[in-house]
Amino acid sequence: MAEVASQETEFAAFAFGSVIERRDELEGRPWISYPVRVVADTPELVAVYLSHGTLLTFGDGPFSWGPHPWGAFGDRWRSAGILQLHRPGRGHSVWVLRDAGTGAFREWYVNVEAPWRRTPTGFSTLDHEIDLVVPADSRTLRWKDVEKFEERARIGHFSPEEATAIRTEAADVARDIAAGEQWWDTSWSRWQPPAGWHALMQSFETEGS
Ligand SMILES: [Mg+2]
Question: What spacing in Å lies between the alpha carbon of 113 and ligand 1's midpoint?
Fold first, then answer.
């Protein structure tokens, strides 16, 4: 483990615009992997952009959780491009969701997931099922997929300790949002990708790292 730790510190920050891998890893293998461009990579914020039309690569099963749910929609990202904001160490990322037709900002989508782990090719995480949806026009917050999460916890997809940490993380961020004290700068809702940030088609080596 010491070797892993020293290895991680050798990775330099990814430069703006570089293409990296954003992966959900399950049972030591990629569950889903896709290329994104780096918007920011600092100790306070990692921001990456998933372009419309980008190739999604699904790991070879079987997985105890079953195939990744996005696989049902094919191997391209069909919705509007997504800016993903992550505060290093926190157990969620915040996705800036836009209307596919108009491009207008629609909602903050708080994806509860494992703290992003830096890899040689990008970042690795794992979805933790619970999501929080915060519409653009209000601070009202909607919890999503709590029942699915509790079912996963019940059947052992999360240990009792992991489940407690996930519930706490979701409750903490929900409380901050309700108080208007969310950690991210809400002007990210106006951010637009530079011209030419078109769909990416890379797939990455599929072994765990
Ligand atoms: Mg989720």
Answer: 7
- In tens, the pLDDT along 19-66 reads 999 999 999 999 999 999 999 999 999 999 999 999 999 999 899 999
Q: Helices 160-178 and 146-154 sit at what angle, rounded to 10 degrees?
A: 160
Confidence of residue 10 (pLDDT cuts 50, 70, 90): low
pTM of structure: 0.92
Q: Which amino acid is present at 114?
A: A
CA of 184 to the centre of ligand 1 (A): 18
Q: Are 41 and 12 in contact (CB under 8 A)?
A: no
Q: Which of 29, 52, 117, 144 is catalytic?
A: 144
User: Which protein residues have a CB closer than 5 Å to ligand 1 (ion)?
Assistant: 111, 127, 131
Is 144 a catalytic site residue?
Answer: yes
